[in-house]
Amino acid sequence: MVKVGLIVPPLDGIVPPDAAAMYPDVAFEVAGLGVRGLTAEGYGEAVGRVEATARVLASRGVSAILLFGTSLSFFKGPAFNGELEAAMREASGVPAMTLTSAMIQALERLRARRIAVATAYTAEVDAMFRRYFEACGFEIERISGLGITALPEVEAVAPEAIADLARRVAAGAPDAEAVVLSCAGMRTTPVAAALERELGKPVISSAMVGSWAAVRLAGSSAISPGMGRLYETGA
């Protein structure tokens, strides 16, 4: 059985529900950072623990490591994201990637440059998302968030509430080529595939893309039938 390491924002470090739903035969080893809030200050305080956490996961014998926090890796821009990935690889000795890089990889595989974005974040963090993705060549047709700063509140958001926000951003961005659901704490497997059928375009989420990318990084097949276009065919 493949063993994959996930560095997650909450301190308790449980396996993300979407990862378990998509890949029940993968052994996910999880370690938490203890991020105190979805703010620049919260990310800045926690990000210094990424290297040590990568070493912990490497000691458990994982084949690859993914930093399972989107805003945690985009908040300071592309150069810092690259530094994080290099630091994780150096500390662990195994392939490593951030969730932001995984999202960009997924959008590129789907050939989607114009995107509509639904997030858990405040307007301040949404602006960080916009700056990062525009710097990488994407067009943000519309972005809207739930205004959450506390991690437990993200985990409490019902999947249907996430779907409603996705519908609103998609309606405001008819030219978008994909819909992005950003924040790995949002549980999206119950609604993502149905949203794709309803909206007629790819719908990707942080938690699902992070799980997909981590399994691929470990050298295994990341096909997950019934979960959406990207995960069924590998795009």
Description of the molecule:
It holds the Pfam family Amdase. It comes from Mesorhizobium australicum. InterPro entries: Iso_Racemase_Enz_sf (IPR053714), MaiA/AMDase (IPR026286), Rhodanese-like_dom (IPR001763). The protein is of the alpha/beta class and 235 residues long. The chain has two domains: 3-98 and 208-225, Rossmann fold (3-Layer(aba) Sandwich), CATH 3.40.50; 102-205, Rossmann fold (3-Layer(aba) Sandwich), CATH 3.40.50. The protein has helices at 17-22, 40-46, 50-59, 70-74, 78-92, 99-109, 123-135, 151-156, 159-171, 192-199, 206-217, 229-233, and strands at residues 3-8, 27-32, 65-67, 96-98, 114-119, 139-145, 178-182, 203-205. The strands form two sheets. A four-stranded parallel beta sheet has the order 2-1-3-4, with helices on both faces. Strands 6-5-7-8 form a four-stranded parallel beta sheet, with helices on both faces. The two termini are 24 Å apart.
Order of the strands making up the biggest sheet:
2-1-3-4
Order of helices and strands: EHEHHEHHEHEHEHHEHEHH
Write down the CATH topology of the largest domain: Rossmann fold
Largest sheet: 4 strands, parallel
The CATH level-2 architecture of the largest domain is identified as: 3-Layer(aba) Sandwich
